[in-house]
Structure formats: C-alpha cells, structure tokens
Design a protein that fits this description.
The structure holds 2 protein chains of 2 kinds.
Chain A (H helix, E strand, L loop, with lengths): L6 H27 L3 H6 L9 H8 L5 H32 L4 H16 L3 H13 L6 H25 L4 H8 L4 H12 L1 H17 L2 H6 L7 H11 L4 H11 L1 H23 L1
Helix pairs in contact in A: 1-13, 3-13, 4-7, 4-10, 4-12, 7-10, 7-14, 8-9, 10-14, 12-13
Chain B lengths: L2 H7 L6 H7 L1 H28 L1 E6 L2 E6 L3 H7 L3 H31 L6 H13 L2 H11 L6 H8 L14 H26 L4 H8 L4 H28 L4 H6 L11 H11 L3 H32 L1
Antiparallel strand pairs in B: 1-2
Helix pairs in contact in B: 3-14, 4-14, 5-9, 5-11, 6-9, 9-11, 13-14
Classes of the chains: A mainly alpha, B mainly alpha.
Chain lengths: 275, 308
C-alpha cells in the first residue's frame, strides 16, 4: 500500500524464502521420523517409510512417552482452566472497580517484574515449597507453576479487552437488577469471549511447551513431554527416529491452533507483549 | 426508583447473597492475590532467606543453616558466573540485533503483500508456539555430524564437516542461529501489528510531496514506529536473557564453559550441585541485573525522547 509496486515481487520472494526456512526443519524432522535408522544416518532421500518410530515411542515398554503425553494434557488443561477463571475475575475487578491508585500501581509493577525475571530465579524456592507441601513429582506442582507463569499475560489480555469495551452494557444490566456476579457472567464474559479464547489458547500452548519448572518439579510420575524428550535425548544419544517422532508430535498443538485461531493468537501475543 | 439502583446507592445488604455481591470486587481479585502472594512473594522471601543459608537434604528432610555471608564469599571466588554473564550478554546482543533487523524487514515487506498474507503469517508464526525443547531436538538433528543438513551441504561442496555443537568456537554461534530462527517471528509479529496500526495520512502526504520509498521509510515510517520498536527491543532483550531450553538440549553449556549461560548455570548450582543457598544468591543478583537494565533502558529512552 505505502510502498511502490516493484516491492511486490521482491516481497513474495523474500517471504517465500522465510517460509521455506521456517518450515524446512519441521519437514526434515518429519521425514526422519518416518525413516528406519539406516536411512536416517545415510541421509538418503529415497527410503521405505515406516511408523516404527511412533510405535516404539508410544507403545514400547521402556518408553514413558505415553505417560508424558497424558501428564502434559492434564497439566495444560487444568492450568488453562484455572488461569481463565482467576484472570477473568481478577482482570474484571481491577479494570472496572475503584481501587486505590497506589495499590494497583504496585500490583501492576510487581506483575510486570515477575514476568520479566528469568524463571530460573524462582525455580529453587518453588522446588523447596513443593517438596515442603508434598507436591514434588505430582501434577499439581507443575500446574501451580504454570498458573502463576501465565497469569501476568492473561491479566493483561483480559484487562485490555475490557478497556476497549464500553461500560454501558454493564450499567444497563445493573439497572435491570442484575447482581455484580450476574452481570459478570451473563454480560461481561460473552463480550470478552475472544480475549478469553486468546488466553486459553496461549496458556494451553505455553503450558504444553514449558520445560524449566516441569524439569525441576518432577522426576518420573509427573514428567511432561518436554521433560521426556530432554531425558530421552540425553539417555539415548542415537535413537534419532524416536527423537524426531517425539519432537514432531510435540509441535502438533501449535500447528492445530494456528490453523483455526490465528487471529486470536496474534491478538493475544501482541497484547501480552506490548501492553 | 428500582431495586438495583437503590441497592447501589444505599449499601445496606438485605441478605447474605447481597452482602457478598456488594463485596464482589474483593473476592473477584482474591484468587489473583492469593496466587501472587503464595507463588511470587513467598518464593522471593524464601529466596532472600536461602541466600544467607546453607540448605541441605538429609533423610528426606530439609535442613536450613544460617551461614551469613558465606554464599557471598563463594560468589567472589566464582569464575564461572562472570563467564556465564559474559556469554549471556554476548548472546543477547547478537541475537536481538539480528532478530530486530530481520523481523522489521520481513514485517515491512509483509505489510505490502496482499495475497497469501494470512498463510504466510501463520507459517512464520509456527516457531513461536512450538516447544523450545522440540526445537532443540530438531536442530540437534540438523547439526548432526554424520547426516545433519549443514554437514551434508559442506560435504556436497567438498568442505570438511564441522562439529557444530561440540567445538568451542562454533557452539555459541550455533545456538544463536537457533534462537534467531526461533524468535525472529516474534519481532515480525509485533512489528507487523505496529505497521498496520500506523495512520495512513502522513505517508500519503509524503508521497504527494514526492518522497521516494527510502525517504518514506527513513523519515515517516520508522519515526512513527519508534514506540513499537523500543518496547519490542526491551521485551526481546529481557526474554533472550532467560535463554535456557535450547542450550540445555544442544550443548548443556559445553564444550567447557563455551555456552554456559546464566539460567543454565543457576539451574546447575540449584539442582546439579544441590547448592540451594548459593543458587539463591545468584538468582537475586540476576533479578537485580534485570531490574537495573529495565530502569536504565526506560530512563535512557525517556531522556532521549524529551531531548528530541
């Protein structure tokens, strides 16, 4: 629009190249995941495809990947649900009700600082805390850490969706005799549903991806997919086929969500970062 | 006057339910505050206590021992932490510069392209949403000595294959390449959002005045984008400072300490060496480094804009 025509051709070439560079590693991994060991190490392009790596990954007796997958799913779903409830209520309370300026100022600064400091600085005390209350290597410890890690972003998204929303609808509901809670559930939630969808998708994906806390708060029973992959890669240096299959499988939620909710994801990521 | 209105004006509750509803804002915020108190404030206090203690484990119990400034003394004699800071800072400067340049360029181009723009954006966004551990695994295979793509290309050009993650010279640059591949898309996304929200009038005016593409970019688009660029730059700097997953998987900090970064080192002190107290001290130093950076950055940005 703002630049001249000739940029169009160059634009398609550059973006196409960027897309190829982005996709190539995934393609490489997928191809290796359906190769026998000898075809992976020879680097051949002509090969007999096989599902043996996926079969071994999920169904072999030594592989914990099925347990990891179940854990990852439960942890991601539960932390997403908790983050949704906590952030929707908290964001609404902060955005629409009167609080002392100093209180909200300190709270916002603290949330921002917590979001910025490296997670590793919190993982030590987290470990002691979870050990202390008997949650070490339990799903709950990972869930709690993922709730607090995603809460800042979730609050920002909820608050900025509310800030764009005229307050008249809520006032009308009050005049009609609705309670605060009733207004929140029947009026506010449907209006900020796109924002909540963004929160849900991003929390699910970030929880699914999270490694540092899951690594240190679990050993075997509650280990997630990233923990499983990392341990696998360290233990069996050369089982490239299964490594590729695991890595490829782990990328699927991101691709699935991107295929149908790209707009919410973009909005959520930009709000979460630029707020 | 209807019931709702009177209830809001005269807050005299008629029932428990009404009493609760009048305090909606308190209990709506309560879960957020509980989470923040229990899982951010409490760990921070814990961190401060750990940093002046030696924490050991015996028969499943945790034993705290106050050791004052012992950890600080250890810190003064620690040669690895400064090295980790140096590696991390070098890493941050290189990857953030490259990612900002590539991300901004791609965003400027993508804002001009109409067809396939949705599909292209979706593809370019994939790396942001994929587990970093999966990315590490993928690149470990790409860097593989025998069958990795890089060495296959070198072989095809009859050049000697390289030990990408194992040589002291190449290991850190190899990780930088992975980070650029991983995070350029994030800059791209934020810049594209910034470009698309720019007002169109100044650009049209510049066009009418006969500005070339380059002049338009240099004197209109970039100045208008400045706030977005500055915020993105800060966030990306802060987040690349946290780098952990890929290094953990690709090199584990080696060879030697060639790719030792802050997060990896603190994690090793905590869990590899079980030195919870010393790890806590390093954590506090890292938090202070982050806070100092944010304050200095904001001050210099504000100083410069008021001077301009």
């Amino acid at each position: 629009m703002i630049l001249t025509r000739r940029w169009n051709v160059i634009g398609y070439v550059v973006l196409g190249l960027a897309a190829v560079i982005t996709l190539f590693p995934f393609l490489f991994t997928f191809i290796n995941s359906i190769k026998y060991y000898k075809d992976i190490t020879s680097g051949t392009l002509i090969f007999q495809p096989t599902l043996v790596n996926y079969d071994r990954l999920f169904f072999s007796k030594q592989s914990a990947f099925m347990v990891n997958t179940t854990n990852s799913l439960i942890i991601a779903v539960v932390s997403t649900a908790l983050v949704l409830v906590i952030a929707a209520l908290g964001g609404y309370s902060l955005e629409r009700f009167r609080w002392p300026r100093r209180f909200t100022g300190i709270l916002a600064a603290w949330i921002l600082l917590f979001h910025m400091i490296p997670g590793v600085t919190m993982v030590g005390p987290f470990y002691l805390l979870m050990r202390g209350i008997g949650l070490y290597d339990r799903l709950a410890s990972v869930i709690l850490s993922h709730v607090v890690l995603n809460l800042p972003m979730a609050l920002w998204i909820v608050q900025s969706f509310l800030a764009d929303l005229p307050v008249e609808m809520e006032e009308a509901a009050h005049i009609d005799g609705a309670s605060n809670l009733g207004t929140f559930i029947k009026v506010v939630i449907p209006l900020i549903a796109p924002g909540l969808a963004a929160v849900a998708i991003l929390t699910f994906v970030f929880s699914w991806n999270e490694f540092l806390f899951a690594l240190n708060l679990t050993s075997t029973k509650a280990a997630t997919i990233p923990v499983g992959i990392a341990k696998f890669a360290q233990q069996y240096e050369v089982r490239f086929g299964e490594m590729s299959a695991a890595a490829f499988f782990a990328t699927l939620p991101a691709v699935i969500f991107l295929s149908f909710a790209q707009r919410q994801i973009v909005k959520g990521l930009t709000l979460g970062a630029l707020k | 006057m209807n019931a709702a209105f009177s209830r809001r004006t005269w807050p005299r509750p008629q029932s428990l339910r009404e009493w609760l509803d009048q305090r909606f804002r308190y209990w709506a915020l309560a879960p957020t505050l509980v989470v923040l108190l229990a899982l951010t404030i409490y760990p921070l206090v814990q961190l401060l206590m750990m940093s002046v203690s030696t924490v050991s484990f015996a028969e499943g119990r945790v034993i705290w021992q106050f050791t004052g400034l012992d950890n600080f003394q250890t810190f003064l004699g620690d040669a690895i932490f400064p090295e980790a800071v140096r590696n991390t800072v070098l890493f941050v400067i290189v990857v953030v510069s490259v990612e900002m340049f590539l991300g901004l360029t791609l965003a400027l181009i993508a804002s001009q392209v109409k067809r396939f723009s949705g599909l292209l954006r979706a593809i370019l966004m994939i790396p942001i949403l994929v587990p970093a551990i999966a990315i590490g695994t993928v690149w470990r295979l790409l860097y593989n000595f025998e069958f990795g793509v890089f060495n296959q290309v070198l072989k095809a050009l009859s050049l000697p294959p390289q030990n990408w993650n194992g040589s002291a010279l190449l290991a850190l640059p190899s990780i930088m390449v992975v980070d650029v591949w991983h995070w350029t898309a994030f800059i791209f996304l934020l810049m594209l959002a910034g470009i698309e929200s720019l007002p169109i009038e100044p650009m049209e005016a510049a066009r009418v005045d006969g500005a070339s593409d380059w002049q338009l970019l240099r004197h209109v688009v970039l100045p208008l984008l400045r706030p977005t660029i500055l915020v993105t730059l800060m966030f990306r700097t802060i987040f690349s400072f946290k780098v952990f997953d890929e290094v953990f998987l690709l090199t584990g900090g080696g060879p030697g300490n060639a790719t030792e970064v802050i997060s990896l080192y603190i994690n090793r002190v905590f869990f590899g060496q079980s030195r919870m107290g010393y790890g806590a001290l390093l954590s506090i130093i890292t938090i202070l480094l982050t806070a100092v950076f944010v304050i200095l950055y904001n001050r210099s940005v504000r100083g410069r804009s008021s001077a301009a």
